[in-house]
Design brief:
3 helices, about 100 residues, globular, single chain, mainly alpha
C-alpha cells in the first residue's frame, strides 16, 4: 500500500493523512485516529491497520510497509463486509462483487 492509497475505504482517508495525523497531532491512543476524517468509524475493516500505524508511529519507529497492495486491500475488505464484518456507510468505496 502506497501513501496515497486509501486506508479507510468508507471515508476515503489515505494512508498519508493518517501517518501525518499521527506525526502532527500525536494522539494518545489508537481510538483517536477517528478524528482523522472519521477513519475507522465505518465498516471497521481498517481498524487493524490504523492500530498498526499508531503503534509504529508512536513508538518512534518508521512505518514498515507490511501491507497488501491497494487492490488486495480492497478485495480483502470486500470479503470482510460480505462475511458480515461490517456495513460501509453511504458514499463508501463499493464492495466488489464476488469473483
Amino acid at each position: 500500500m502506497e501513501l496515497d492509497d486509501e486506508l479507510c475505504l468508507c471515508f476515503h482517508v489515505t494512508k498519508r493523512k493518517v501517518v501525518n495525523f499521527i506525526r502532527v497531532e500525536k494522539p494518545a491512543r489508537a481510538g483517536q485516529l477517528s478524528e482523522c476524517f472519521g477513519a475507522g468509524t465505518g465498516c471497521g475493516w481498517c481498524r487493524t491497520y490504523l492500530k498498526r500505524l499508531f503503534d509504529d508511529g508512536t513508538q518512534g519507529g518508521q512505518v514498515v510497509p507490511d501491507e497488501p497492495t491497494a487492490a488486495d486491500y480492497a478485495r480483502l475488505r470486500s470479503r470482510y463486509v460480505r462475511e458480515g464484518g461490517g456495513t460501509p456507510p453511504p458514499g463508501a468505496t463499493p464492495v466488489d462483487d464476488e469473483s
